[in-house]
Design brief:
alpha/beta
C-alpha cells in the first residue's frame, strides 16, 4: 500500500528505464496498487515489463463492496499474487480461500503467483518443510500445475517478528523441498514446470547471494521494488547469473 498516483507513474517510468538492458532476458513484473493499475499499464505498453496485481477476490462479481474480481484484472494484468503472507495473517486468507483464488485466477487466464511459507514460531520449531508441504498440497488441490504457475517461498519471519533469519542455504533447501513435494504430489516432470522464487528480505545487499542459490529462480520484492535503482539491481542479478 504505497505511492500516490503521481508517485506510481514516476516509479513505473523509472523502473522501465532502469531495467531496459535486462528486462528482455528476465520476466519482470510490476504489481502496483489497484487504483494505479490502468495508469501503470499505459506506461508499460510496448515495454518488456509485465503487469501484475497484488490480490483479487475469488468471485467474478457481485455485492462485494471494495473488492476486485479476476474479470476486472483479465486483459489488464498477466499475473496476480495469491496467498501473500500479509493477506493470510492480517486479512484471514486461509487455505480454502487461497485455493479458490488460485483456481479462479487460472480459469480466467491469469497466472497466479502462489505465496507460501512458515512463520517465526514454526521456523524455530523446525517445521518449515512440513508447513510448506502442507500448504502446497492444500493450495494446489484442483489447480493446474504447469509453467504458467509461479510459487513464491515467502515466509512471514522475514519481516514479522524475526530479527535473525536463517542463512540463505536454508531458503535454497526449502525451495528444493518445494520441488520435491511437487514431485511427490504429481511427477518429476510436472515438478519442473512451475517457477519457484523467493520473497523475503530481498535487497541490493543480498541479491548476489540469493541469485547464487541454484534452486532459487527469481525473487518477489517488496520494499526494494519502491526504489527503481534497487529494483534494477535485483533484475540485473538474475539476468547475469
Amino acid at each position: 500500500m504505497n505511492t500516490t498516483r503521481e508517485e506510481a507513474g514516476t516509479l513505473a517510468r523509472s523502473i522501465v528505464s532502469n531495467v531496459a538492458a535486462d528486462a528482455s532476458s528476465v520476466d519482470t513484473v510490476l504489481c502496483p496498487p489497484f487504483p494505479w493499475l490502468t495508469d501503470v499499464a499505459d506506461i508499460l505498453k510496448g515495454t518488456p515489463v509485465i503487469m501484475g496485481a497484488q490480490n483479487m477476490n475469488a468471485d467474478l462479481g457481485g455485492a462485494y463492496t471494495g473488492e476486485v474480481s479476476p474479470r476486472m484484472l483479465k486483459g489488464l494484468c498477466q499475473y496476480v499474487l495469491v496467498g501473500q503472507y500479509e493477506r493470510r495473517i492480517l486479512f484471514g486468507d486461509k487455505e480454502a480461500i487461497v485455493r479458490r483464488k488460485l483456481q479462479v485466477a487460472q480459469q480466467q487466464g491469469l497466472k497466479p503467483v502462489l505465496c507460501l511459507g512458515e512463520d517465526a514460531d514454526q521456523l524455530d520449531e523446525g517445521l518449515g518443510p512440513v508447513v510448506v508441504a502442507e500448504q502446497l498440497e492444500a493450495d494446489l488441490d484442483g489447480a493446474t500445475v504447469n509453467d504458467q504457475l509461479v510459487i513464491a517461498y515467502e515466509p512471514s519471519w522475514t519481516t514479522m517478528g524475526r530479527v535473525a533469519p536463517p542463512p540463505l542455504s536454508y531458503v535454497n533447501d526449502i525451495v528444493g523441498h518445494i520441488r520435491d513435494t511437487l514431485t511427490m504430489l504429481y511427477s518429476a516432470e510436472v515438478a519442473q514446470q512451475p517457477r519457484v522464487i523467493y520473497g523475503g528480505q530481498v535487497n541490493p545487499r543480498n541479491i548476489a547471494e540469493i541469485a547464487a542459490q541454484a534452486a532459487i529462480e527469481g525473487v518477489l520484492a517488496g520494499t526494494a521494488a519502491t526504489n527503481p535503482t534497487n529494483f534494477a539491481m535485483l533484475v540485473h542479478a538474475f539476468a547475469t547469473r
